[in-house]
Amino acid sequence: MSAGSFTDYYAVLGVAADALESDIRRAYTDQIKAVHPDKLQHVSADTRLRAEQRTRELNEAKEILLDAEKRANYDLEYRYRLSEAAANASQYGYGQRYDGANYNDYMGRSGEILSERESKLRSQAGGSRIFIFVAITVMSLLAIVWRFVSPEGAIRAVRPAESISLSKAVAARKLPAPAEAMTLSPDGRTLIVAAGASLVIYNGDLTDSATVVDAGSPVLAVAATNTLIAAACKDGLVRLYALEIINAVRTVKLLRLFRGHQAAVCAVAFSPDGLLLVSSSWDKTAKVWQTGDGSVQRTLLGIAFPIYAVQFTSDAKHIALTDNQLLKLWTWREGTLKQLAIAKGTLKSLAVSGSTGSDWIAASGADGVIRQLNLKGGSQRLADGEGSAINKVSFSTDGRWMAVAGDDGRVRVYGAESSRRIETIAAHSGSAA
Q1: Closest CA to 318 of 356, 364, 275, 285
Q2: What is the pTM of this model?
Q3: Helices (H), strands (E): how many in the chain?
């Protein structure tokens, strides 16, 4: 199987990789009913087409996973991809973020599994290296040329002065563990911080006492709507919580667990309407889920590295994601993948701002450069993070400002349109998240 044609059939059926035959049959029976022709008599042509495609995927999954010989061959390829992900994570110093038992198992057998394909990889390596070198060279030259000929540069001098003052902290709170990630609900009322295996939840202005939720596993990333919280966890699960605030009383309740990733989940993001959730993992897959029932809508495979960041565009038709130094755009319903940019270092964070059809995507990471790309016109804005690796990038709600959290503990604020640094805040003594 090639990287482009490989399909995660376990995800298609929504079962674990060690599922019993009876579990696979039950999952197939339950899901094939939803796309039966009798239920599609009064739907649009697009919906019928997607249902037909879903039917093909379910039938392929059943054919392979319920045939002992075919499943054994499929599992060999499946284990290979997991082992490669673990090896890459270890090489780049991120192995400790795997779930301990799974990671040790992958690494203990990675040599054995990789050797089974060594001859194939050797024959493909020469052509791949040449292609990658040419692609990087061409994209780098295009980026340089565009930076100098971009029409945005001609109007930069007449932009109004930008001013913001955030250097004084409004409030500070002690966390039970180092912060791994944080997010603010769209209405600004709730701040959620991932600290160790806990979700620490405050009012948006930090004026109240915290609600602490035990997630049961270290939380590596967090996302929120006004009523939902998603936690990406080291044990490979995504935990979805209901958030309710009535008369200033906050209630947080676990709704469901999303199962399907085979290693630590490192990123999550909601669609703008909150009906969909995308997650990505050290297993080098991204998955789109329905928040209402937890079903997997689509799985992306064939990515060369663990996917560190994912974000929906404003129309929810596309998902921006990272592939080591590459920024890519996944049209997830159609299954197409487009490369947008190449960075000099690993990209670790993404943010999306704008209106439908005119989104700006900001990407940053190890090289300390903040790249903004416009999906409609293809224009690009660049800003220098002053030498520090960047762990997180975010837009303000109105899209005017862009904040980045640096490995040097500083938070830098930029004008989104001008890409000029407006303020630097010495926020933390350690790395900022």
Answers
A1: 356
A2: 0.64
A3: 7, 24
